[in-house]
Amino acid sequence: MRVRVAQWAAWTPGVEDRTAWKAWCRAPHPLGRDGSPDVAFLPPLLRRRCGRLSRMMLKAAFACGTSDALAAVPTVFASRYGDTAATVALLECLAREEPVSANHFSHSVHNTQAGLFSIATGNRQAASALAAGRDTFGCAFLEALGGLRRAGGGPVLFVIGDEPLPPVFAPFVDAPQAAYSVALLLELHEGPAAITLSLGDDPAAAGELSGTPAWPQPVEFLRWLLSDEPTLTLASPRRRWTWRRGELR
Amino acid sequence: MGMVNALGGCADEIWWRLLAGDQSCLARRDDLIPGQSLLVGEVREPLPEIPIHLSRYACRNNALSLAAFEQIEAAVREVMADVGPRRIGVVIGSSTSGIAAAEQAVAERLRSGALPASFDYAQLEFGGVAEFLAAYAGIQGPAYTLSTACSSGARALESARSLLALGVCDAVIAGGADSLCRLTANGFTALQAVSESPSNPFSLNRKGLTLGEGAALFLLTKQTGGVQLLGAGSSSEGYHMSAPEPEGTGAEAAMRAALADAGLAAEAIVYVNLHGTGTPLNDAMEAKAVSRVFGCDVVCSSTKPLVGHTLGASGAIEAAFCWLMLARRAGRELPLPPHRWDGIPDPALPRLRLAAVGEHLAPDGLAILLSNSFGFGGNNCALVLGEAAT
Known about the structure:
The structure holds two protein chains of two kinds. By secondary structure, chain A is of the alpha/beta class. Chain A has helices spanning 18-26, 44-49, 52-62, 67-71, 84-95, 102-106, 112-121, 136-150, 203-206, 217-225; strands at 3-11, 75-78, 127-131, 156-162, 180-188, 195-199, 231-235, 240-245. Helix content of chain A is 35%, strand content 20%. Chain A is globular, with a radius of gyration of 18 Å. Chain B is of the alpha/beta class.
């Protein structure tokens, strides 16, 4: 399936708009961990219910189109960890046998960001939410391709974001930690800007794997998108994902 | 198809109790909510041990998955020998993952200052559900966990269908798994959504849901023949995080999308497995939505009074009930899972035709069924299952 990124946006502390990201891609440096975006575009009631992960993901999502356009697209939201800090707070509350807040509970689901986006935009299209460990970006990209196919090729909004794991889970960290979000508006496309994704070992791309990047996979994808490199291969212990631009060879 | 839930540990046992409308499997637990006994649909079978080399994934949620997987393992191995492990995918719906294990770990840390040695973040991590099954089965294709609250299991089947259509996989293991835990018990209680007696969907006297747990897994391939997943459709609501849009427009959109995906008119559907949680809000909007799409003559039931609301697994478990109906159809006769309730309709709602114990249909042609799943965040999914045309 051949697609193009019709629009993109991303957020991390200190790299907060497209101009700043273009500069970052020319000279990448480690991403921030502290800070939270301004989400003045949300009504106050919704704003209060947004944790940082929701703020970051909605910030990037809202920068990908007009409110009319955003109300009409199917969405795929992905996060490897989700709002783990909020989950831990709920579990500590349970451990102390304190009553659980109904509001905190209903905002603890993995599709919280998809739900908040739907409410904020009035979007009534299919909305997916998923996680896949160190393969979250690749699997979510596939899920977005599936959404594109179901939507007859029209655009699909793909939003991914994560925060550093809370300190209590520090022993289990196995990937770069940062606070970030990336949103990609994907559509079917034939032409030189088209991107294809292939799975599995790709001998042509294997040589380009030069260690683990210091930043999360979605940010590495964005860096590649803004470069003129022909392919990008991202790896996890389970598999490789290769994106290629231009005509099929 | 493999499954485990409060009705039993295998399809034969579950089918027999399902048709009997057996509610004797619901049991009380007093360890979920402080100072309160809660009626739940708990899996009582001993569950398989997680192998030692996968002990980082050892939690009840994954043991439930494994119990369902063992029932389809031979078929999976056969397909894998044919297409290879890279061409098989895994998509599992789960809303809780192994959060029950994390509850104990966090409590232990508050007491002693350290997480227990048996805890691993992989138990709590959403992606761990699919990762575990892929690792256990030796599957090397894409593996992910779909987590859209109570529509997760149905959404996982929809995504699996897309992976086949995209040509990325030749077979996908798909379904759902969720385990009882204190977080959902206390959370739904805080929302005043839990009933003290077995859930009583669509009754004037309905008071809320009964929680349950379980898993159901399918092996989906592109092969024609046997029971088919004919269509799937999803919608969101843009309305509220924990309350459905009261007129059921989101639910209606999902049902119509599933019918369109299957290329079928509403008249083709002979049975609807309702989401039917038994909460006042769900049943009110679902009765309106179902009656708008199908009228009030199509026979329906909610199977949640028998197994509880298994949350992220429910869409897969209820699809599995539909699968059993189709796979075990004898001649023309199509046995129906009964709708267990007090029989007192809510006069404020369109009156659905709810299946009684022992009732069956005898459709002339192929039987085609629809199953509804609706979740937090206004996330809806409907599936259409049917017999293959021969």
